[in-house]
């Protein structure tokens, strides 16, 4: 009896760990140059094909204040004014993607900050050249993923649904 209860508890805990691990979110954004160059579908396709779950997606023209908040850790950098100007030059597509290690894997899929250092096969390595026109953004840590998704979508405002393909993606 005790053993049965223990095994039920252990199975439940494993399921909990698995679920919370698969719940990680990353903020992925197609920047104004990515939108203008018609790469929205390509970027979405790569995340969908990989098995990640889209839980938020909107096209918008963020204010300078919003962009300054998003990039607040870079405020002191000499390229900051140029970055804000570029990011304000047209609409962006803001997305929240969910899944196991989506932050780390998303960064790997995007490639290096400077596209010339990005490997072919990555989004930046395949589609751009200059660091100031690197077409996409991806959260750099699990904490920034949460912070950025909250900043762009509002707390608790992403979609909650399960993917019918989940058991084909996760073991
Ligand atoms: P990432 O976007 O890879 O997280 P980051 O957070 O250091 O890189 O910088 C944010 C953006 O700022 C980056 O995507 C492009 C721009 N940027 C970074 N370094 C730059 C530089 N040295 N010159 C011009 N723009 C730069
Ligand atoms: Mg960054």
Silhouette: globular
Q: Strand pairing plus helix content: what structural class?
A: alpha+beta
Question: How many helical stretches?
Answer: 9
List how many beta strands DSSP finds. Answer: 4
Strand arrangement, major sheet: 2-3-1-4
Terminal Cα span: 29 Å
Largest sheet: 4 strands, antiparallel
Series of secondary-structure elements, N-terminal to C-terminal: HEHHEHHEHHEHH
Q: Spans with pLDDT under 50 lasting ≥5 residues?
A: 12-20
Oligomer: single chain
* Helix content estimate: 40-55%
Key phrases:
171 residues; alpha+beta; four-stranded antiparallel beta sheet; 47% helix; globular; binds 2'-deoxyadenosine-5'-diphosphate; binds magnesium ion
Can you give a write-up of this model?
- With 171 residues, the protein is α+β, with helices and mostly antiparallel strands.
- Mean pLDDT is 92; it is low at 12-20.
- The chain has 9 helices and 4 strands; from the N terminus they run αβααβααβααβαα.
- It has a 4-stranded antiparallel β-sheet with strand order 2-3-1-4.
- The chain is 47% helix and 14% strand.
- Bound molecules: 2'-deoxyadenosine-5'-diphosphate (DAT) and magnesium ion.
- 2'-deoxyadenosine-5'-diphosphate is lined by residues 74, 79, 83, 113, 131-132, 134, 137, 140.
Topology of this protein?
Layout: H1 2-21, E1 25-30, H2 32-36, H3 40-50, E2 53-60, H4 64-70, H5 80-87, E3 92-98, H6 102-110, H7 123-127, E4 136-138, H8 142-153, H9 166-169
Antiparallel strand pairs: 1-3, 1-4, 2-3
The protein binds 2'-deoxyadenosine-5'-diphosphate (DAT) and magnesium ion.
């Amino acid at each position: 009896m005790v053993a049965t209860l223990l095994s039920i508890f252990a199975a439940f805990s494993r399921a909990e760990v698995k679920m919370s691990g698969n719940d990680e979110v990353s903020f992925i954004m197609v920047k104004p140059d990515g939108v203008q160059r018609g790469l929205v579908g390509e970027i979405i396709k790569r995340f969908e094909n990989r098995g990640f779950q889209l839980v938020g997606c909107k096209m918008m023209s963020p204010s300078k204040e919003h962009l300054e908040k998003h990039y607040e850790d870079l405020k002191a950098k000499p390229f900051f004014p140029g970055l804000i100007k570029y990011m304000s030059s047209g609409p962006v597509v803001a997305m929240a993607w969910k899944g196991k290690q989506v932050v780390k894997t998303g960064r790997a899929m995007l490639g290096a900050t400077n596209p010339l250092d990005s490997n072919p096969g990555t989004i930046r390595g395949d589609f751009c050249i200059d660091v100031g026109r690197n077409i996409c953004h991806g959260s750099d840590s699990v904490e920034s993923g949460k912070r950025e998704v909250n900043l762009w979508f509002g707390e608790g405002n992403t979609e909650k649904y399960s993917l019918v393909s989940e058991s084909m993606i996760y073991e």
